[in-house]
Amino acid sequence: MTNRAFVAGNWKMNGSRADIDAFVDQLKPRIDDHLPRMAVCVPFVYVSRLAEALGGVGVATGGQDVAGETEPGAFTGEVSASMLADCGATYAVVGHSERRAMYGETDDIVVAKTRAAIAGGITPIVCVGETLEQRDADEVEAVLNRQLGAVLEGCSDEELSKIVLAYEPVWAIGTGRSATPEQAQEIHAFLRSQIAKRADTLSRSLSIVYGGSVKPDNAKAIFAGDDVDGALVGGASLKADSFADIAHAMASQSATN
Ligand code: PGA
Question: Relative to the CA of 10, which ligand 1 atom is closest?
């Protein structure tokens, strides 16, 4: 399996302390050395509990957002990267389409959060993706170029080498309608080619994962694309078994490549 392989869960605004404990109990026996790097991104308040429960399991903990500010101060409600790291997290989702659409996150904010995450020792999982209207209007590449372009422009090569990129078409998120394996591969190859223009070595080492209705029954087909390095999983990450099934699908797909 390549070093790029990565499967992350995004619990969104779901879960409880009891759910975290039950999830980890069920996940533990499903983890083995053949699996890709894995992380579970939970609401801030559960980060510590998840990180403690996952101690020694080999699955990382993440938040679902991070402050764009790095220094402590008067930023009510914000959680900094160093606070996440202090609570045992090593990842954070940044620029998820729900945050872009519902909480006004602009490309500039996404860049600030990406950089702040890295500065605080957190790996940002930076999300990009088009809406259905944009796809229908043939604007996919333009939208992705704008979203990814901001990150490429705002970050140094060193910073870029520390991110995970997630392609999440908005029309596929939580809809049960995932991108086809061909669509995912086509866009992932496009994203990688855009990064290659900046730095070839970087484009070859960067993990680009797909997100949007990934389930145990479609994961292996989606992972078949050479440029699809894994998944950011929403709904199917709430159950340990389906999340583990997706990680195992990545492992078996990589084994056949
Ligand atoms: P989904 O969500 O797997 O429930 O479609 C993916 C995401 O939003 O990260």
Answer: 9
